[in-house]
Amino acid sequence: MGVSHISNGSEQRPEQRSEQRSEQRSEPSQGARGWSRRGILAVLGVAPAVALTGCGAGSAGASENAKSGTSAAAQPVISVTPADGTKKAAFTSPVEVTVADGTLASVKVTGNDGSTLAGSLDAARTRWTSTAHPFSGTKYTVTATADGGAAQTATFTTAAPGETFVGYFTPEADSTSGVGMPVSINFSHAVTDKAAVQKAITVTAEPAVEVVGHWFSDTRLDFRPQTYWAAGTTITLGLRLKDVEGTDGVYGTQSKDVTFRIGRAQISTVDLAAKEMTVRRDGATLATYPVSGGDAEHTTWSGIMVISERFEQTRMESSTVGLGDEYDISDVPHAQRLTTSGTFVHGNYWAATSVFGNQNTSHGCVGLHDAKGASDPSVAGYEFYASSMLGDVVIVKNSGERTVDPANGLNGWNLPWAKWRAGSAL
Question: What is the C-alpha to C-alpha distance for residues 354 and 236, in angstroms, rounded to an integer?
């Protein structure tokens, strides 16, 4: 029977027609049937069973990986410097806490002395740094947490300093002084880093006034305002010298506050031309006393001086002030020190009463008539002593001597304000 073919515009070659007829007539083998089924499945877009089984196994494996967490995000790791367990950590560097793969939520650093170290986080919240260094010889506990709950606790102990220094201060804590009393600090070791040490010391006043420090030497730093303190002022000295390196390898040990008050304003003026002392308190004249100052060979320092020590009775020896064996008096009454070099205003019972107000006969001190034993309240020496206190101002003029060295006693008031400020390390 004839077969007609519909083509899409291209004729089949005879060989193709012959193969087609042959395939239609031939009985397919078992193997050919299997191949045909797979071929048909492939043509229909259906994957063979083996391929489906393979895909099913891949999906199950991915599900198990998800369950095991192998693809989860890394956990935050917190690190502390100094490291946990350090026994002799440096106290010259801040404490640092860092976190990897996260951000910090909180940090607390506590010393076994009850102190805490404040600090701050960087912008990324991955690093915390203490604002101050840890104290020496102190055990610290660091507790840090990261956002999400991760936490770290570490402990370390800082090393003890080698050589140390302290500052001995005047006036004493809780004392009341006159309006001329500076805050004077004498250090037990020479200071080379004056700026670091001065920065660690504050002097504040109420009512407020500008207070400036002045270095007289490597071991002495004084503070005062431009003019005398106002009567009734409360002054606070803050010492934060602990672990401050005053010189190479030498550290301070003090961390304390000291408060004292200024009492009434008493200023006494000694005129050695008139041989008279006028005492004024709170602007009014309290008393006028006849005095005797240094003679022509032993003139009295002139200038502003401050009472720095007081003795109801004391021994005075000329040998201690470079005057050989000219005098040795065991019971000088009512002695009040004006200079380190040995100038006092004191009572005098061994000179005739007529000397006072008429002659300058002393070895440099200012003398007032007094009685032996320091017990007669009617004499000038007793009265002046009773009316005085540490820090009171005594001004000497017309003595024939130059102005006292500002470092000779508590006498920095003899420096003009500009020169005083120039002596600050800050």
Answer: 46
